[in-house]
Amino acid sequence: MNPLLSFLIPTFLVRKLKDISSSKSLTIASTADIHSPKHLEALKEAIKRVKVRPDVVLLAGDLINKGNVKWYSPTIEAISQLETHRIVAVFGNEEYEEIHDKLREELGDVIIFLDDESVKLEIKGLSLGIVGTKGSLEQPTTWQERNIPGIKEVYEARIGKVERLLRELDTDLRILLMHYAPTFKTLYGEYRSIWPQLGHRGYEKVIEVTRPDLVIHAHAHNGNKKAVLWNIEILNVSFPLWREIVLVKLAKRADLEQYF
Ligand SMILES: [Fe+2]
Ligand SMILES: [Fe+2]
Q1: Ligand 1 centre from 70 Cα, in Å?
Q2: Distance, CA 162 to ligand 1 centroid (Å)?
Q3: How far is ligand 1, taken at its centre, from the CA of residue 11, in Å?
Q4: CA angle 234, 116, 70 (to 5 degrees)
């Protein structure tokens, strides 16, 4: 800055302007629906094409197929080639409930699993808050209705819980990571008749009122890649859809009120 100008601008404002000029960002890598071993080789090829080192990797579920837990570690081994600092994952419907404890036990030191939970990370001087959940379905599958008592109520209650978790996060950046879709706007390409079995629009209101910086989901293998809701990017990172690792640069939004 011209030294003459700095006489004219109050010191506190000079400090704020410096903050803006060095605005920080995080590189987020994300994927899901590998259904290992089905897409594992294609995943490895996609990882080779990534030329950046992501600050955090977010996994949106269905890394394995039909609860076959032995394929989880080889998938994570492939993902670790991204040389990220942190891996955060939610469970998909293919990571059956009964293997959750085993996954936490085996991989809990390399992966932060979030199951209707949140985590705060400090990366490159920025605080990043992530709320992770499997999400909800407007219409539970026939199997779920037969085998999980009160599943509809579970799905409805989860929406409120996710909203509370997002409200509680006071970090610079906030991400909602889920498996099922939080909207039908990323489901074009899937048969319209099954949309209620792919997600729940109750989360649209949650996104509107809590305004996370980014929303990531999967599960809709044939859906569309992204949509915008209330000016917030919703990414469907399903690997069969992208055939690439999804990379996002996330920067802290300018907060106008602090300057006036
Ligand atoms: Fe899937
Ligand atoms: Fe799924």
Answers
A1: 17
A2: 21
A3: 53
A4: 90
CA angle 240, 212, 165 (to 5 degrees): 100
Tokens of 206: 């949650």
Is 0.85 surpassed by the pTM of this model? yes
Among 126, 68, 61, CA closest to 90: 61
Strand-pair partners of 7: none
Q: Which residues are CB-contacts of 64 (< 8 A; sequence separation ≥ 6)?
A: 34, 35, 36, 71, 72, 75, 94, 95
Lookup: tokens for 231? 């000016």
Sign of the CA dihedral 54, 55, 59, 60?
Answer: negative
Q: How far is the CA of 134 from the centre of ligand 2 (A)?
A: 9
Amino acid found at 149: P
**Cα gap 152→204, rounded to integer Å:** 18
Domain 28-259 fold = Purple Acid Phosphatase; chain A, domain 2 (3.60.21)
| Ligand number, closest to the Cα atom of 63 | 1
CA 23 – ligand 1 centroid, Å: 36
The pLDDT tens digits of the residues spanning 162-216 come to: 999 999 999 999 999 999 999 999 999 999 999 999 999 999 999 999 999 999 9
